[in-house]
């Protein structure tokens, strides 16, 4: 795959504060890459460096084979969509879409053609004569995306574009962005703290922490084989259950429980004797008729029930640790009920107690 964006040994310091450190990242042509992480991890900062809105302290940025490390934003061949819509309130939608093109002195026919194409793709043709004040939040964000789209560039940058919208609008516009990528096949780099957005949109996800990339991979890879405990905890809703214990004699021991590790795919050789943490996703815990097939079974007491419609989440305690289980939404459970749950080690993740790296 030809790379569309290449980031080499990128550093960004604000005085003594290191925001990005020796960061390397290759983004393929036509790829949808999501930068995911909690607030302050450096994801928006990295996007702003790619856009040319921040001067880097070291390293290089290449877009389509050209070194743009010190190029102006307008010279980088990018279109950017910000968290805030930043539309000109006195202009119509059509005026907002065409403003940058008029400044670039494009021919009138070319401007009209690009505005028409963008408005058709984003289904905002009926809105062209309206002003931003007469638009909903979702419509305004469509216009903001359209303003980037009319530039006809190879790389689009999105900085948390849906975070100001309510849950339903976010879900609707997420689908629109995915359709847009399928239609255009442009390179898209998308910043979010919302893991659902990341998992549903991305070809690959880069999970960031402290200005570094913890793991880069497909949604399936990151969900199924997190490289460390931080990634495992960050991906998944509700988050992964963790039990601290010790690996001994081919089993994981926590309290008076012993979980056999037959079938677990160790990254290296199986440690003979080591302190470790086992991670089990709530959706990988089995209940009801499936318990009989589980390698490890334990009885728990239901302490909290959260019905969500399609699923029911229950809280319980395993070996003195808080533990959550995702059940089918039609499951009938009650507070205080005794419930047998099962765990298959092949679906679990083991992490070294000190380094927190995957075993």
Please describe what this structure looks like.
It comes from Boseongicola aestuarii. The chain starts with a strand and ends in a 7-residue tail after the last strand. The strands form 5 sheets. It has a 6-stranded mixed β-sheet with strand order 6-7-8-3-9-10, sandwiched between helices. A hairpin with a 2-residue loop joins strand 9 and strand 10 (212-217). Helix 2 (93-103) packs across helix 3 (108-121). It has 2 domains: 3-233, Rossmann fold (3-Layer(aba) Sandwich), CATH 3.40.50; 240-352, Nucleic acid-binding proteins (OB fold (Dihydrolipoamide Acetyltransferase, E2P)), CATH 2.40.50.140. The model has no long low-confidence stretch (mean pLDDT 92). The chain is of the alpha+beta class and 359 residues long. It has helices at 43-51, 93-103, 108-121, 137-149, 167-184, 195-201, 219-224, 229-234, and strands at 3-14, 17-28, 32-36, 58-63, 66-67, 78-81, 155-159, 187-192, 204-209, 212-217, 241-248, 251-254, 257-260, 273-280, 296-301, 304-307, 311-318, 321-328, 338-343, 349-352.
Q: Which of globular, elongated, flat, extended, rod-shaped describes the shape?
A: globular
Assign the CATH architecture of the largest domain: 3-Layer(aba) Sandwich
> If you average the pLDDT, what whole number results?
92
Structural domain tally: 2
Percent of residues in beta strands: 25-35%
Strand order within the widest sheet? 6-7-8-3-9-10
Radius of gyration based on Cα positions = 24 Å
**Main sheet overview:** 6 strands, mixed
Query: Helix/strand-derived class?
Result: alpha+beta
H/E series: EEEHEEEHHHEHEHEEHHEEEEEEEEEE
Low-pLDDT stretches are: none
Within CATH, the superfamily of the largest domain carries the name P-loop containing nucleotide triphosphate hydrolases
CATH topology of the largest domain: Rossmann fold
Count of distinct strands: 20
Distance between the termini: 31 Å
Family: Belongs to the ABC transporter superfamily.
Protein name: sn-glycerol-3-phosphate import ATP-binding protein UgpC
Domain ABC transporter: 5-235
GO molecular function: ABC-type transporter activity; ATP binding; ATP hydrolysis activity
């Amino acid at each position: 795959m030809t790379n569309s964006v290449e980031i080499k040994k990128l550093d960004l310091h604000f005085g003594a504060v290191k925001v990005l450190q020796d960061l390397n990242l290759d983004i393929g042509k036509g790829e949808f890459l999501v930068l995911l992480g909690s607030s302050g991890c450096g994801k928006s900062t990295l996007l702003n460096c790619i856009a040319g809105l921040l001067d880097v302290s070291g390293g290089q940025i290449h877009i389509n084979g050209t070194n743009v490390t010190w190029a102006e934003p307008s010279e980088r061949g990018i279109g950017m969509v910000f968290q805030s819509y930043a539309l000109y309130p006195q202009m119509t939608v059509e005026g907002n879409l065409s403003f940058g093109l008029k400044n670039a002195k494009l021919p009138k026919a070319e401007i009209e053609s690009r505005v028409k194409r963008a408005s058709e793709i984003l289904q905002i043709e009926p809105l062209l004569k309206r002003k931003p004040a007469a638009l909903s939040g979702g419509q305004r964000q469509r216009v903001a995306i359209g303003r980037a789209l009319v530039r006809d560039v190879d790389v689009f940058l999105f900085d948390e574009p849906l975070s100001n919208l309510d849950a339903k609008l976010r879900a609707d516009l997420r689908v629109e962005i995915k359709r847009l990528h399928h239609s255009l096949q442009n390179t898209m780099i998308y910043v979010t703290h919302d893991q659902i957005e990341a998992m549903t949109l991305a070809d690959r996800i880069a999970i960031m922490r402290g200005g570094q990339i913890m793991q880069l991979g497909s949604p399936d890879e990151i969900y199924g084989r997190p490289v460390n405990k931080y990634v495992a905890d960050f991906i998944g809703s509700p988050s992964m259950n963790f039990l601290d214990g010790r690996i001994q004699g081919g089993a994981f021991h926590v309290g008076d429980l012993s979980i056999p590790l037959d079938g677990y795919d160790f990254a290296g050789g199986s440690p003979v004797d080591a302190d470790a943490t086992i991670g089990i996703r709530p959706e990988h815990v089995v209940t009801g008729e499936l318990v009989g097939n589980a390698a490890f079974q334990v009885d728990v007491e239901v302490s909290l029930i959260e019905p969500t419609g399609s699923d029911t989440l229950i809280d319980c305690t395993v070996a003195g640790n808080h533990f959550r289980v995702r059940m089918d939404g039609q499951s009938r459970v009650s507070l205080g009920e005794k419930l047998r749950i099962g765990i298959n080690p092949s679906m679990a993740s083991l992490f070294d107690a000190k380094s927190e790296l995957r075993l």
